[in-house]
Amino acid sequence: MKNLKFRIMIDKFFIILIAILTFAIIVPLFAILFYVVKQGVSVINWEFFVSLPAPIGVKGGGISNAIVGTLILIFLSAIISIPLGITAGIFLSEYNSSRLSNYVRLSTEILQGIPSIVMGIIAYIWIVKPIGRFSALSGAVALGIMMLPLVVKSTEENLRLIPQSLREASLALGVPYYRTILKVVLPASLSGILTGILIGIARVAGETAPLLFTAFGSPYMNVNILKPINSLPLLIFNYASSPYHEWQRIAWGASFVLIVFVLILSLMTKGLTRKWKTEF
Amino acid sequence: MNNFLKISLLVTGFFTGINLFAGSMKIELLGAGATFPYPLYSRMFDVYAKETGVRVNYQAIGSGGGIRQLLSKTVDFGGTDAFMFEKEMKEADGKILHIPTCLGAVVVTYNLPGKPELRFTPDIIADIFLGKIKWWNDRRIQAINPDVKLPHQKIVVVHRSDGSGTTFIFTDYLSKVSQEWKKRVGRGKSLNWPVGIGGKGNPGVAGLVKQMMGAIGYVELIYAMGNDMPVGIVRNKSGNYIKPSIESVSYAANVKLPADTRVSLTDTDAKMGYPISSFTWLILYKEQNYKNRSRERAEELLKMISWMIHNGQIYTKPLHYAPLPEAAVKRGEEILRTVTFDGNPLLK
Amino acid sequence: METPSLSRSNGLVRDTPLTRPNISSKRNFPEIFFRFTLFLSGIVVLLLISAILLTLILNALPSIKAFGLEFLSSSTWDPVSGKFGSLAFIVGTLLTSFLALIISIPFSLAISIFLGEYYKKGGLPSTLGSTIELLSGIPSIIYGFWGLLILAPIVRAMEMKLGIVPYGVGIFTASIILAIMIIPYSASLGRDVINLVPSELKEGAYALGATRFEVIKKIVVPYARSGIIAGFLLSLGRALGETMAVTMVIGNANFFTLNIFSPANTMASIIANEFTEATGKLYLSSLIEIGLVLFLITAVINFTGKWIINRLDIRGSKK
User: Where is the signal peptide (chain A) (predicted)?
Assistant: First the structure.
């Protein structure tokens, strides 16, 4: 039987160790944010947001096309993934234990785990080759497929949280089933679903790998989805590995913008949960 | 819920409208390939867009990428410093033309305290990149650089991680000057490098060399100069130690050009020529009517290339590229005149 | 008609209005259309994953036919002679991912225990939890960027002191970045599982005179063991598939190495580097085959992790 004092000492030591290790994680987080903010803030000015990237050796230049590109890609991938994702989520939650739904659930899990670079390969083979050209559309397809499982899972989980009593009350009042789902259950779980969508958007906004051989990048402003397009992560990737000081500065600035964007989405998620969540 | 649907339909409709409208606007040419001439091209295309309103989107993904994308017909033209081999051209669905746009030098750049200017012989370069010479103060390097006190520093080799024409030029040279290199590694855009780490594109290699003490790599001249990095003086075939410059590169280009302009300039016979010089080319299809290309698009492409080999040449020297010699410009014009649309030559 | 029970599934078909046999509105059009759309969406998802797998296999066929199993055992990657073998990249991927996992374990466990056991409620844990979630929200490209410009020089300086070739980039640096990226995943799952440990078990141990540490060591962790392991498996899956952050700091060297301070390449980074320029059908097909292998490995690992979690759910509700 070990000495009591010794055991108490170990106990105290342990919690200190745990605390240290836990707070240690803050160090790299802080380091990353610190550098991005420090290097990025100095680059940010109005010109940065509205001008196009400049060629090497020419001063100035901005990230306007990358911002627009990211927004367009997000919008397109949302169009691709949200309708299908929500519908599939409803399917999974309502047809809970059927054979088909088990397979679908399995597929969703697998989809979620697909490495982003493999998604890029798929989008290249499915869209870029047949069309014959790089395009925002192909990038959006890759991103959309990546976002899909997140939407599906979020929908399914949030629908499951709605108790049967709500559904039954609506049915008891004579509301047909499909309207019950669409007009009663779905809106009740909307905050949760939207949270999942926002998380998906945040994830997809920062993706680079699938865009490498689909969206391709562009030095120009482009709103045509059948043409190549630039995006914030692509720009950061291209500029970061260059030796030009000018370009690296711009990359920091773009990183700053990207992180702020992701942070805003994060905060929106928290706000949504607080404001719209229906309690049962 | 209904409102939400209405709004999203509106936005989507608006978007589609813009896209359809935008699609009918000015032609934007797509190109991809070599990072070697990228600083020059980005300048040229910037000027060209201002002068003519035609935008050119060139992505520097490496010569290998340029060739691949042209073969896949996903771009209008490719950029490459490694001219295509017969075997590669056979894979293409159509005849491919090469048009030189400028001359450049592949330089050996390194990171040593004090940024000394070092001399290199061909066999030393080969042995460094083969991993046989591991230290900077190796006897052989010190022997030809008597005025420089070389540090006892490990040599870190940096090469390209992507498929590169710059690599091709460099290894083409090494294969000519070192039998061992030719046997063990060979020449190509992507290789089985015996040692070293890879950087993406010319910028990647320059970046890595710049950050690592003792590193050595090969890049196009402008990438070393633009980053204030030292450049090696290389001994050429005639035994002279030549510094890479516009003049020494132009000397190296003083060769007979074949009709299709596919020629290697490395290990030049020219007495004062820099031994690792090269043309860089634009590649395009001879028959421009493929995959629903419009005649207008093909014409714009030719106009752009023609501009590049004529008016665009004034932008070469300020960026440390050598302009095309007369003979090359003439050849380029001849080749452009053979480009057809539906069998009929486009340029009158 | 009996009112259906509100209880959870008893294992058979769940009692939802859709699956109950005699709904009179079944015959009307909107209802049928709705159910049809739901089915269709499920099928589309299934088709999607099958199409992806099929595409990968079809396009990898030329390479599979040419090299067979040797593709997995050869480390020669030679575009010039057309010989391709992926061993170097498989090893690179496994090394970086497992090393990242090992580095992340102490931190992730600590966070799980801290937030799941010591400080479950209140402002501090919630802020801490959000901070850690923030870590998982940072795009991977920014990790790579930061790794290249800030972490690599630090590693370089460290290597110089140790007398190793100061690449700065390489397996070690990539593993550190990966570890930072995957900690939130296993930490949040671990925290949830540890939270669920029934208090009766813990209180029983306290009643017998155990210290907090002993309770954690002998009761909490063993009970939550499967969940914790599942969390690690998920982290591993994430690490295996990570592309951008790794590509920027791995050093891009295509040879087989077990030296963690050496540059290398992973399956994901070789695809990112060479895909756009692979000339030649075999080259491209080999890269796609690597994509296929990567897909299969991550699928298996993710699936195992999820399966363990699912088993836990059922076990948890069988109280």
Answer: none
